[in-house]
């Protein structure tokens, strides 16, 4: 990528896309192309075709996706599979047709089998059944990986894929019905603190283990791969550290400064029991995350307060 390369960041209004734009700007790239979903509906093949024809991007970060937490995935199953399949198919096909030099597709750690051996290596893809709560989303993300591989195999395209672990940070979704666990807990504890509520309710048993990465680190990893990685195998991007939802809840409680009790609602789903990625491949290329969980949580809470509180 040259400093003035035409770089399209699809999904720049989302948490991941906006972090990638911040990183590219910081690195001095001068020709970053963005479109809101109102300007360009990536589910519409004609609109995507027209955009690639006119704008001729040379590099594409495919960070646009319909995303959400455990309840949103479980409830809006049709939207999660349809929107994501359409976005990926349209953008990847147009990228091939219009001669994009390199494309990076963003997947998710939920592509792996529900009971995959931990930590999960890239080669355990498609070795077992998926977690039911997010199966439609996972199937769409697996299709994205396979699109990149197929266009590489048949047409020689330099299309690569990165699989981030669970993310959080600036630009996260704080809608309690749709969000992931970290923004949900930041908001719940904050509102309980303000209203001096005696307790806050956390979904599930608190036992599931998750790995979390600050989104600016993920963006750094994506730009690193765009510069340094050209192989067919997709790449996990994780921190290598996992934590129970219960311990995470107590840390966020401390960051927010809530004094009341934490109640676990066993009527809500736990999801997959454990989801730690093996990030040996990206580490071997010389990349590591920089932000510790606690520092990322403090920063995320500051963003939440400045944007919503
Ligand atoms: P997942 O990694 O796909 O399961 O996505 P989430 O981030 O939505 O959920 C992670 C874990 O946190 C699950 O075990 C949830 O049950 C648990 N959790 C606890 N409280 C909440 C909450 O208020 N919102 C969400 N989204 N998850 C919660």
Mean pLDDT: 97
Tell me the helix content.
40-55%
Shape: globular
Which stretches are poorly predicted, pLDDT < 50 over at least 5 residues? none
Describe the overall structure.
This protein is an alpha/beta fold. 42% of the residues lie in helices and 15% in strands. The protein is built from ten helices and 13 strands. The chain has helices spanning 15-26, 45-55, 70-75, 77-97, 135-155, 181-194, 215-228, 245-256, 280-284, 293-307; strands at 7-10, 32-33, 59-62, 102-106, 159-164, 166-168, 199-203, 209-210, 212-214, 235-237, 243-244, 261-265, 274-275. Strands 2-1-3-4-5-10 form a six-stranded parallel sheet, with helices on both faces. The protein has a three-stranded mixed sheet with strand order 11-8-13. Strand 4, helix 5 and strand 5 (159-164) form a beta-alpha-beta unit. The longest helix has 21 residues, at 77-97. The protein is globular. The mean pLDDT is 97. It binds guanosine-5'-diphosphate. Guanosine-5'-diphosphate binds at residues 69-70, 110, 134, 166, 179-181, 184, 202-204, 208, 210, 245, 268-271.
A few lines on this structure:
The chain is of the alpha/beta class and 309 residues long.
Write the layout of secondary structure elements.
Layout lengths: L6 E4 L4 H12 L5 E2 L11 H11 L3 E4 L7 H6 L1 H21 L4 E5 L28 H21 L3 E6 L1 E3 L12 H14 L4 E5 L5 E2 L1 E3 H14 L6 E3 L5 E2 H12 L4 E5 L8 E2 L4 H5 L8 H15 L2
Parallel strand pairs: 1-2, 1-3, 3-4, 4-5, 5-10, 6-9, 7-12, 8-13
Antiparallel strand pairs: 8-11
Helix pairs in contact: 1-7, 2-4, 4-5, 6-8, 6-10, 8-10
The protein binds guanosine-5'-diphosphate.
